[in-house]
Amino acid sequence: xxxxxKFYKIYGNLPLATRDEIILTINGEGxxxxxxxxxxxxxSSISQEILDKLDALKII
Length: 60
Hints:
The chain has 60 residues and is an alpha+beta fold. It is 50% helix and 15% strand. The protein has three helices and two strands. Strand 1 (22-26) and strand 2 (29-32) form a beta hairpin. It is globular. The protein starts with a helix and ends with a helix.
């Protein structure tokens, strides 16, 4: 399973309130589950960095 697939599987099972919590920091900016999903949905340049960090932290 790819990191992107893992992210969507975990995201889909999160309680709604948890999705607003910050899960990592990139360039001094806190990234919540919701913000991460927006970046990943758009395949933005930062999305791969988010997925790599979440994978390295064993969050996904």
